[in-house]
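To close the chapter, one final illustration. This time we ask the reader to focus less on the individual chains and more on the assembly as a whole: which components sit near each other, and how the overall shape emerges from the parts.
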Amino acid sequence: MTFDIQRWAVKIEYDGTGLVGWQRQDNGLSVQQILEEAACKLCNSHFTINSITAGRTDAGVHALGQVAHLDFPAYFPSTANKIRDGLNYYMKPHAVTILQASKVNLEWNARFSATKRKYLYIILNRPSRPTLNTNHVWHVRKKLNVESMHKAAQTLLGNHDFTSFRATACQAKSPIRILDRFEVYQIEDKIFFEAEARSFLHHQVRNMVGTLKMIGDGYWPVNQAYKILEGKNRRLAGIKAPATGLFLKEIIYPNNPFTEQLPNPEIIL
Amino acid sequence: MTFDIQRWAVKIEYDGTGLVGWQRQDNGLSVQQILEEAACKLCNSHFTINSITAGRTDAGVHALGQVAHLDFPAYFPSTANKIRDGLNYYMKPHAVTILQASKVNLEWNARFSATKRKYLYIILNRPSRPTLNTNHVWHVRKKLNVESMHKAAQTLLGNHDFTSFRATACQAKSPIRILDRFEVYQIEDKIFFEAEARSFLHHQVRNMVGTLKMIGDGYWPVNQAYKILEGKNRRLAGIKAPATGLFLKEIIYPNNPFTEQLPNPEIIL
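The assembled structure is written out below.
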C-alpha cells in the first residue's frame, strides 16, 4: 500500500547521554526511535514514519544541529510550527528537541543533499573534575599544548586515505575523505576542536582528537599525526576520544531549508 | 578545647541541581555539608571543620566561582594542590569541585573581605525545549525584547532601597544596596544577565530578572522597573525567576588569594 507523502526537514538538538546513538538498536533507546515514534503519534499513523538523517551519531554523542527528513502522509494538515511543536510534545521527556522544521520537495534528502558536516569536540583541560558539563566534555587533567595540537591538525587537512583514523567496523566503501578544516583553540579551561568535511568515516573525529591529545600532552611530537596518516593502519593511531565530548554541530546544504526565518508570531515581537 | 589553625581559601564550582543550596539544612544535602565533610575526612579530624562562604546560594543555584574559607588544624601538612585534590577526592561523586586553593592569613575572611559579588543569569529564549542545559537555564518560549530589558536594568543601577526585589524572608538589616552593573545581552538563543554589587539581598537577582522578563515580553513598559523600585513593596515586582538559570560567577577581593598561579607540575608543561 502506498500513499502520497509530504517531506519535512527538521533541525534537531539532543543530549546523547544514555541513548544508543542516532540509529535504532535492540539494546536501548535511540534518537531515531524517539523521533519516529513521535511522528507516528503526531499524525496518528498506523504505519512507521521513517526518518533519514545527515549524520548517524554514536552512543553518547550530542547534536546542536542534526538534520533529518521525515515523510508524512500528504493528508496530514501541517505547518512548520505544528511539526516542530507537535514532535517536541510527543518527544517529551527525552532530551531531544526540534529547533526548526521546513517543508522540502521529495528530491531533497537530509543525507545525500548534505555537502558538509561540522563536528565540535570539547576537552575540559584542568585538574578539577567537571561539575556543570560532566557528560559534555572529555576531562583531561594534564595541561595540553594547544599550539602543538593545532599544528598537527593542519597536517591532516586535504584529500587523504584516513584508514588510520577509521573504526574497524566502518562500513564506508572508501577510506578516502577530504578534511576541509580542523581548528584547535582554547577558551578558559576548555579546548575546542572544530572539524569540517563533506563526510567523515566512522569514529574519524574521535580518533583524530585522541591522537591530537597524545601530541598535546607531549607523548608524541607534532609530526606524528601525519606519520600515522601515512601509515594507513588503525593500530598506529592514538586512543579514541570518548563520546561525551563530541557534538554534531551543523550540516551544510547548498539548498538550505532552514535559512528562512519561520513565520512564528510568538517569536517575532 | 582549641588548637592552632591554618586558613585556606578555596574557589568552588558546583551544579546546584538537587542540592538544598549552600547552607546546611535538615531536608537535604548542601554544598556546605559536602565540603565540610570532605575537609574532615581529608585531615582525619574528629571535630567539624567549619566553612565560611562569600555567597549563600539557594537551592538549585549554581556556582562558577564561589569562594569559601576553611580552618584546618595547624598540624595537618598541606599544600595548595593537596587541599584541592584531597577535597575533590572526598567530595566525589557530588557535582562540587575545588578549582583552586590558597593559604590565607587568619584575618582574611571569604565573606567579609569580599568587595564585590558577580552573578550571571541565563534565559534560553526559543520555542524548543532545552536538551543540553535543562537545569542551567530558565526556558522562556516567547521572544523577549533584549534592548528593553537592558534599558530597564540600567534604571536600577546605583544606591537604592531594594525592598521591592527582596525576599520576604530576607534577614539583611538594611534593604539599601548599591547595584554597580546590570547588563543584558543575547548570544544566539540565550539571553545573559550580569549583575554586580558589593552584596545582594535575598533573591534580589532572581526578582530583578523576573521583573525584566515581564518587561521583555511586553507585559510592562521599560519604566515599570524603576516604578517598582520606587514603590518599595515586594508585591509590586514581577515573578521570581527560577533558580536553575542563576550562577554565582565570581567574588572580588582587594587582596585576591587566587591571582597567583598555583605551582602545579601537572598543569605546567
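Residues 124 and 190 of chain B are 5 Å apart (CA to CA). The first strand of chain B starts at residue 5 and ends at 14. With these observations in hand, you are ready for the problems at the end of the chapter.
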